[in-house]
Specification:
CATH class of the largest domain: Alpha Beta
Number of helices: 7
Largest sheet: 5 strands, mixed
Domain Histidine kinase: 77-291
Shape: flat
Number of strands: 7
Radius of gyration: 32 Å
Helix content: 55-70%
Structural class: alpha+beta
Enzyme class: transferase
CATH superfamily of the largest domain: Histidine kinase-like ATPase, C-terminal domain
Number of domains: 3
GO molecular function: ATP binding; phosphorelay sensor kinase activity
Protein name: histidine kinase
Order of helices and strands: HHHEHEEHEEHEEH
Strand order of the largest sheet: 2-4-5-7-6
CATH topology of the largest domain: Heat Shock Protein 90
Distance between the termini: 44 Å
EC number: 2.7.13.3
Amino acid sequence: MPNPIPLLAASALLAVAASLLPQPWSALCLVAAISGFWRTMVRVRSSLDAMRAQKAALDEQLLQSQKMAAIGEIAAGIAHEINNPLAVITQEAEWLGHLLSQDPPDVAEARKSLDGVRAQVTRCADITHNLLNLARTWKPVSQPASLNRCVEDMARLTEREAAPRRVTLARQYDQNLPMIPLDPPLMRQAVLNLLVNAVQAVPDGGTVTIRTGLSPDSRAYLQVTDNGPGIPREILPRIFDPFFTTKAPGKGTGLGLAITQRIVDRLGGLITAANIPGGGACFTISLPGPKTEKNNE
């Protein structure tokens, strides 16, 4: 049904115009004009409804196309990540067959080959585990917690991997940072992913700097910076895409940052990545602070 307000306004204008015409033509002209205007409004409304329906159908088609494109990218990533260890397992199995066919069998070399198979099986398990984490619908259990404590717990754990390569983890914690609403287990996983990623990015003897603090808008933040090569500008927009990685084959699944982004999003935060002038990368997690929590109550 057309909006009656424009129709009434148009009718009033037509009535004024008709009053200027001699009788009885004025009444006939008014009726004809109103009837014609009404039919025009009905046609316009019908056309608008058809256009809206067509737009909705096109939007749905676009959404489905985007979903299929995303599924295609993820499927390609899964195939690539799984095929690599499977190829190694196949080679090791063939080599094992050769070793065991010797007289006498080379048991020592066979054990090394079996260790290689176990390593690739573990890698496949890690990939599927990370995929499940990526697909999970997390429901954070928010509670007042110390961001510094969550970060330090994971920093100590990461130092075990950093020590053999003499990588330094420099802490710059805001000791006055208040408790903020967090899900500590989820936050620890996000922090661990960032720290491991940073340690792996720097050369031997490199430095990873960890900062925490409160921004002027009362949001808590965590910054992880490194003095590695940084992130190529052309791939920076894709750094959080699943299966996207700049690491050498076999060195990463490309799921860590994607999982981290999902966790941060579930915690009501935001994660960004940027390059540092002079070299290195910086990842920043911004989280709701104590004032944000109070205002939301």
